[in-house]
Amino acid sequence: MPDLSSRFSIQRPYHSREQAPDSYLVGRCGVRVLEKQLESDRGRIINSAAVRRLQQKTQVFPLEHNAAVRSRLTHSLEVQQTGRFIVRTIFEQLGDRATAYGLDGLERATETLVEMACLMHDIGNPPFGHFGEEAISHWFERVLPELSPFSNGHLNPQQTALRGELLRELSSFEGNAQAIRLISQLQKLNLTYLQTACIFKYTRCATEAKPAKGSPLAYLKKKPGYYFSERKFVAGMQEALDMVPGHRFPLTYLMEAADDIAYCMADLEDGVDKEILTCNHLAALLKAQYRELRAPFGDADAPGFRGKSFADLIDSALGRWQRESINKEHEFFVSLRVGLIHPLVEHAASRFVDNIDAVFEGNLNRALLEDDSPCHAVVETLKRVAIRHVFSVAEVETLELQGYRIISGLLEHYKPLLMLTMEQFERLYQGDKRGLLIESRLFHRLPPKHVKAYLSLLGSVPWLVDGEKLSLEVWERYCRCRLLQDMISGMTDQFALDEYKALSVIGS
Ligand SMILES: Nc1nc2c(ncn2[C@H]2C[C@H](O)[C@@H](COP(=O)(O)OP(=O)(O)OP(=O)(O)O)O2)c(=O)[nH]1
Ligand SMILES: [Mg+2]
Fold it and tell me: Whose CA is nearest to atom 21 of ligand 1?
């Protein structure tokens, strides 16, 4: 029988007092000490600038002025609420069996862990959402071959191989990997490994190639989950929590399910709020999409949602919309949410319980909500309608193109810093700016915290299997690319726009 309590450790990367390693485990330190440590994590997270910056980052609509439309922060609060609901439902479903799984007395701790993971899950996302990630990746992919240490130099085969892997990493920027870097290196939140592990969504280092579809752990390695720069931190976390490399920590599945449930409804509500869709049109689209997805199962009209079929549920939401005169759209979505949230949360919870062995092992190779069930069809229906009828309308695509231009344009402005030799760049942080007219001014705009993180990373040139180190020139340029990615991805949408305008000498 898997015992989760043996994996709940209060170990952090840095401890002020020396503690014996086994006293970190909840079995030794007790539930009260665990809760106290998690409360401390909670404070660190809520008080972090990275969480505050989410208020000005894109969820779906870049640079949105209407504060009722979701930002990454308000989305994350909704995910937090859904995550807490899932945890409570799991404990209800487990009942007395919680003891057998080592979860006795751990409800409060589990709830806190999942809630905070939900609040933090998007902190690594760059401005302009998915498009921002693409813009950073494309720009680096294009520019990296121009940087001499990446294309020239006498390297041995091991050095050449690692250089190739680092190049692969730098051209695949990923918000989830950046979140691990933010927590461990940039903000140095010094959270318990336990809390950080709950957002460790993908388990592949960005230097590794994406595994073939269908191979073991392919889903968990679908995207890069951490960068080479954080490999030691991740190894420390895996050791502290007894995680097999390539596997997840069990509670991460809950954060992922809460995110899926929250955004699939919210994105449509925002679409209606922005008058991209009407409730009438949306209702027809949802019914048709669900019917199509369930056709092979022949149960499109089955009363699977608290005694109602999906179509009936949509119709009664529409009825509320027609009857209500003041807050019509709100009524529609309240009705939809009330009808769907319980079945979806119960489904996520029972998938967790039914797959508890694989979930505890961290090798369940799919999302909890991903199966052949009507609940999964609902999530898929909501997502597909959003993709086709909200994300791809001209207004949203125009904003995405603007976001792309802003990010690539900003990187272009900062490119002179990447083109300097290692010695010239060193002169900049030593304060000697002679002959570095443009570059010194660009350098002064970099956040000092990020420059310190660069210097700290620079000091740890990796060893190779043959007992040699990677060439310092290659490593330094990798660190400098990371520095630019840290700076760009840490910006909010508005800050990125302002900075772009300022450097391009465009008025507001
Ligand atoms: N504007 C726009 N928004 C999109 C598009 N595709 C997805 N979204 C929205 C839907 C969700 O609200 C949000 C999901 O963003 P994330 O970057 O967190 O992605 P997700 O959690 O699905 O994947 P992850 O595994 O974290 O990379 O982005 C798109 O093509 N355009
Ligand atoms: Mg995400």
Answer: 259
User: Measuring from atom 16 of ligand 1, which residue has the nearest CA?
Assistant: 130
Closest CA to 233 of 225, 53, 475, 217: 225
Q: Is the C-beta atom of 260 inside 6 A of ligand 1?
A: no
**What confidence tier does 18 reach under pLDDT thresholds 50, 70, 90?**
low
Task: Respond yes or no: is residue 434 known to be catalytic.
Answer: no
Query: What's the CA-to-centroid distance between 460 and ligand 1, angstroms?
Result: 34
**pLDDT tens sequence across 233-267:** 999 999 999 999 999 999 999 999 999 999 999 99
The verdict on whether 75 is a catalytic residue reads yes
Which residue type, as a one-letter code, is found at position 201?
K
Q: Contact, 276 vs 390, CB < 8 A?
A: yes
Q: Which atom of ligand 1 is nearest to the CA of 202?
A: 25
122 tagged catalytic: yes
Contact 140, 206 (CB under 8 A): no
DSSP string of 326-392? SSHHHHHHHHHHHHHHHHHHHHHHHHHHHTHHHHHHT---S-TT-SSSHHHHHHHHHHHHHIIIIIT
